[in-house]
Amino acid sequence: MATYNQTINGKNNEKKDVDASSATIDFSEQAVASGESVLVFNLPENSIVVDAGFYVKTGVTGATATGKITVGSTDVVAAVAFGGTSDVLKGGAVTKAHTGTGAEAVVTIGTANATAGVVEVYVEYIEYTESNGELTNY
Predict the structure, then answer these.
(1) Phi first, then psi: what are they for 74, rounded to 5°?
(2) How many Cβ atoms sit within 10 Å of the Cβ of residue 85?
(3) Which end of the chain lies in a sparser environment, N or C, as judged by fewer CB atoms within 10 Å?
(4) Total-model pTM
(5) How far is CA 117 from the centre of its chain?
(6) How far is it, in rounded angstroms, from Cα 95 to Cα 70?
(7) Whole-angstrom Cα distance, residue 44 to residue 39?
(8) If the chain, 138 residues long, is cut into consecutive pieces of 10 residues, what is the mean pLDDT of each piece?
């Protein structure tokens, strides 16, 4: 069986960076009813989502309120309960997603209305057609 070295072809030997986007949702300024969605940011084209989640800065009123993160048509983080506790990370298994020509990142609230509290939403991704200019060792 032959082995081929693809690191020397084209841009395969250039390092890629992991980028991140984040947004803050302050439910006391923008209450969100159960079943409603909030567009938090747009992700660039040709990217692969590798991680995502929530940082609950201030406990959410409507402690049973849940949130999920969707990129394009893929739920990258399934619904998780925010809870009334502050300063906690929430998330779980992340479903990888491809952004194609670009995709919206949306948070959908479920179970109960979120009427107060502050949540930071983050999504990490790799733009695989971009590089940082450094070369790998090949």
Answers:
(1) -105, 125
(2) 12
(3) N
(4) 0.86
(5) 20
(6) 10
(7) 15
(8) 60 76 96 96 95 96 90 97 92 95 96 95 91 61
Amino acid at 97: A
* Coil vs helix vs strand at 80: strand
Q: Which of 37, 86, 41 is nearest to 59 (CA)?
A: 86
- pLDDT for residue 129: 82
Asked if 107 and 72 count as a contact pair (C-beta separation under 8 A), the reply is: no
d(CA 23, CA 65): 18
Residue with tokens 């979120």: 114
For residue 101, what pLDDT is reported?
Answer: 95
Burial class for 2, CB neighbours closer than 10 Å (0-12, 13-18, 19+)? exposed
Distance CA 113, CA 138 (A): 53
HSE-up of residue 85 (Cα within 13 Å, Cβ side): 8
What is the three-class DSSP state of 137? coil
